[in-house]
């Protein structure tokens, strides 16, 4: 990274250690036990209305995590729908080409049949006996024989073309069925996303201003506690990898998006979801990667955490439902969840599943 981004990262981590910005609200599934309050007078975790804010925080985490899982399913269905649509278009082109070829072959076969009919009648040996020029007849007979062989080849080619057309039609039908199935999967995932987000927003809307402020502190504390535990393991001392040229470009793109809102299914330029940000960052670096966090985890080469370098992607949670980009100094840039913006936070603020390297 350039000096500007290095200072941005360092500043962010200093603030993180002060527990001011080390937060990934809503996606940080850290320990449910809150860190001790930093005020001399203990602040109760239960409001006067009887709401358990820690339980609410856990519930919000669960709702937004479910929305993230559904978002990954939606994105996967969207990618498959695009692919199948393209395949159907290609098959349609092949069918048109095959039909044109079949029509041409039929015309040629018809012309050959008419020529043979005009030369028909007497058997070959009788035509030879009646011929004034036997050698000329034999030469003509050779050409006829060649024509017959050509006709047989023509008929065989027609048969193959017809078989190809039948296979194209079957393939197109299969792709249409898959396309419809993925459209339904998209619709189902979309309903699930909206359901989970609506439930989370309803839960948050029931909180009073002071409760929301306390809830935000609990989210910060959970992220801070997880990050502190991760750093205390000494892992940062082992991480010394330098980014590749493509990795630098990907980091620059991702950090340039800081402040833009999270939106499920979005790939920019005005908003992003988690994998939309990472996939577009690497596309901007000239290296295409899978669209979803789960496919990024499944398809991209894995590296050890201690070997990661800026530009690598960190996959979070056992179901690989969240992804962020490592930018160095123990920090990541990511699109957290609905209601949040692209931001920098601690790499250990969420449970790490593993690390993948797009340009390995």
Overview of the molecule:
This protein is 61% helix and 7% strand. By secondary structure, the protein is of the alpha+beta class. It has a six-stranded antiparallel beta sheet. Helix 7 packs across helix 8. The protein is elongated, with a radius of gyration of 33 Å.
Compact overview of the structure:
The chain has 360 residues and is α+β, with helices and mostly antiparallel strands.
Backbone CA Rg: 33 Å
Distance between the termini: 19 Å
Low-confidence stretches: 1-50
Q: What's the number of helices? A: 9
Secondary-structure element order, as H and E?
HHHHHHHHHEEEEEE
Q: Structural class per helix/strand content?
A: alpha+beta
Count of extended strands:
6
Helix content: 55-70%
**Overall pLDDT:** 79
Beta-strand content: 5-15%
- How would a textbook summarize the main sheet? 6 strands, antiparallel
- Overall shape: elongated
Please list the strands of the largest sheet in the order they lie side by side: 1-6-2-3-4-5
Secondary-structure blueprint:
Blueprint: H1 3-17, H2 53-118, H3 124-130, H4 134-205, H5 209-232, H6 235-238, H7 245-256, H8 274-284, H9 293-299, E1 302-303, E2 313-316, E3 322-328, E4 331-334, E5 343-346, E6 352-356
Antiparallel strand pairs: 1-6, 2-3, 2-6, 3-4, 4-5
Helix pairs in contact: 2-4, 2-5, 3-4, 7-8
Short key terms for the protein model shown above:
single chain; alpha+beta; six-stranded antiparallel β-sheet; 9 helices; 61% helix; disordered N terminus
